[in-house]
Amino acid sequence: MKLFKDFKIVLLLCLTLGLAPFFPEPHIWGKLKWLWGGAEGMQPIDWFDLLLHGSPFILLIWLIILNIVKNNGA
Q: TM segments (predicted)?
C-alpha cells in the first residue's frame, strides 16, 4: 500500500500511535522496559499493546532498510 511507503505518514504514526500516551512516559518505552526486565506478569493484552505501539517503528525501520537497498542497488 502506497500510504505506508510515505515517510511523512510513517513518522506521524510513530509520533502519535507509537508514543501515545505521552505522560508520564511514552507507552512503548514502559512496555520495552518491562520486556527488558524479564516480562514478569505480562498478559496477552500487554503483548498486543506492545505490538500495537511498536508497529509504526517496525514499519519505519522497514522503510529505511528498503530505501537503503534501493539506493545501493541503483
A: 48-69
Rounded Cα distance, 17 and 53, in Å: 6
How do the residues of the chain divide into helix, strand and coil, expressed in percent and rounded to 5?
75, 0, 25
Q: Which cell goes with 71?
A: 539506493
Q: Which residues are within 8 A (CB) of 50 and not within 5 positions of it... i.e. 6 or more apart?
A: 28, 31, 32, 35
What pLDDT, in 10s, does the model give residues 6-26?
889 899 989 998 888 888 888
Under the banding of pLDDT at 50, 70 and 90, the label for residue 54 is very high
